[in-house]
Amino acid sequence: MSEMTDTDTRPRIALDAPQWRDFALCRVTDPEAFFPETGENGRPAKRVCSGCEVRDACLAEALAHDERFGIWGGLTAAERRKHYPKRHR
Ligand code: SF4
Fold this sequence. Notes:
It holds the Pfam family Whib. Residues 25-82 form the 4Fe-4S Wbl-type domain. By secondary structure, this protein is mainly α. The chain has one domain. Helix content is 26%, strand content 0%. The protein has 3 helices and no strands. The chain is elongated and about 60 Å long. Residues 24-26, 34, 48-49, 52, 54-55, 58, 71-74 line the site of iron/sulfur cluster. Iron/sulfur cluster binds at residues 24-26, 34, 48-49, 52, 54-55, 58, 71-74.
């Protein structure tokens, strides 16, 4: 029987490594609060975001993927638009 050796030196991604979403505080709250109806201010969701440890990662992902709906990283879509370069608005 031959002994198996691991000669693959490529970097590996641990598929079971925790992702920022695993720490999202909104996972344990009412998801509808994060998609306020027109005229609602989203304050309840923003309050949750203010205590969320992955807020920066969440906002960065929303900006990277141009999320048009919902509250991400404590900001509404309109508030996130201020983070984009002018040509993107
Ligand atoms: S910052 Fe993002 S991940 Fe955290 S509670 Fe708010 S929406 Fe959820």
